[in-house]
Amino acid sequence: MRNLLFAQPEAPPPPAAIEIIGALEQARLLLGDGPGLAKHHAIDWVDGWPCYCLVAAITHASRTKQIRDAAIQAVMRALPGALIAKGLRPSSCRRIEDFNDHPSTTVEDAKTVLQRAKSYAGSVAA
Q1: With bands split at pLDDT 50, 70 and 90, how would you rate the model's confidence at 29?
Q2: Do 58 and 72 touch, CB atoms closer than 8 A?
């Protein structure tokens, strides 16, 4: 008989690509056409409207920690392409926070990187 006191809990199953894509799309909707992108904070309030940063939008849109982690990994893979499209060197922003807090990053830039990240959902799933 196994000693149940020392049994390790089973790890939750890895998220499916469709769950990651859903979280990324929901994060895009959260950013919406808001008055701005929260910089240096998770959420800012502008004229009574919440403005999320990229990581806060992904966290809020993800059902589980596993989905959030996979969605953030997909955004990290999409980040170099988004930086090049903005005319920035990929080495200038190595973290999502650096991209988010860059003075020239707009809501549209953040929505574009989330859209690009959807193409990486299959590679980060399972």
Answers
A1: very high
A2: yes
Helices (H) and strands (E) counted in the chain, each on its own, are: 6, 2
Helix (H, G, I), strand (E, B) or coil at 92: helix
pTM summary value: 0.85
Which residue from 34, 32, 64, 55 is spatially nearest to 46, judged by alpha carbons? 34
pLDDT of residue 121: 92
CA-to-CA distance for 29 and 21, rounded, in angstroms? 12
Buried-state track 75-100, b at ≥16 Cβ within 10 A, e below 16:
bbbbbbbbbeebebeeeebeebeebb
- Between CA 14 and CA 68 the distance in angstroms is 11
Q: Residue with structure tokens 């996979």?
A: 70
Smallest Cα–Cα separation from 27: which of 118, 120, 123?
118
Integer Cα distance of 86 and 115 in angstroms: 15
